[in-house]
Specification:
elongated, Fumarate Reductase Cytochrome B subunit, about 180 residues, about 5% strand, mainly alpha
């Protein structure tokens, strides 16, 4: 029997991360357009950090789950080259989803600020306070943010390609059961 669908846990982790990554990106982008006084007044940076840091914990859960549960097999119509590209794209996305909040954590630490996790607790600093290091880490974080956005957009476009062009069930395999139309 072939494995054609992700597990319920894999789907839940995927969609939670998708929501959190997109919301954190939007809040982070909005915050980056504000002067420091407005960032503090609106709490936009704190909100961004509180949301974005959750991705580190969800990503750890995703990786552990993925290591212990097989992913569905690629459709037989998918070329070996496309399968390699899909694996590379997923790997890059995982690397960015890890590096982005980690760079934000390091940037915030180097800038001398705290890093909240969902408003529940603070992460310990991972870099000594240093303005020049903070500036470099800020640039790294911004580059990773736009790289991650591009990878997420590509991921979404490829999911739509699988669904609307290839019609191979790849997108359906990651959808919650409640969102599916019956297949009579």
């Amino acid at each position: 029997m072939t494995n054609t669908e992700y597990t319920g846990v894999a789907k839940a982790l995927h969609w939670m991360m998708a929501l959190i990554v997109i919301v954190a990106w939007i809040v982070g982008y909005y915050s980056s357009t504000l002067p420091l006084s407005q960032k503090i007044e609106t709490g936009s940076v704190t909100l961004h950090k509180a949301i974005a840091t959750v991705t580190l914990f969800l990503l750890a859960a995703r990786i552990l789950w993925r290591l212990s549960h097989r992913t569905p097999e690629a459709p037989s119509t998918m070329s070996k080259r496309a399968q390699v590209a899909a694996r590379a794209g997923h790997l890059l996305l995982y690397l960015c989803m890890f590096s982005l909040p980690l760079s934000g954590w390091a940037w915030t630490s180097a800038a001398g600020f705290t890093v909240p996790v969902a408003g529940l607790f603070l992460l310990p600093p991972i870099a000594a306070t240093n303005a020049s290091v903070a500036a470099t880490l800020g640039a790294v974080h911004m580059t990773l943010a736009y790289t991650t956005a591009a990878l997420v957009a590509g991921h979404i476009l490829m999911a739509f390609k699988h669904h609307f062009v290839d019609r191979d069930g790849v997108l359906i395999s990651m959808m919650p059961k409640t969102s599916r139309r019956s297949r009579n």
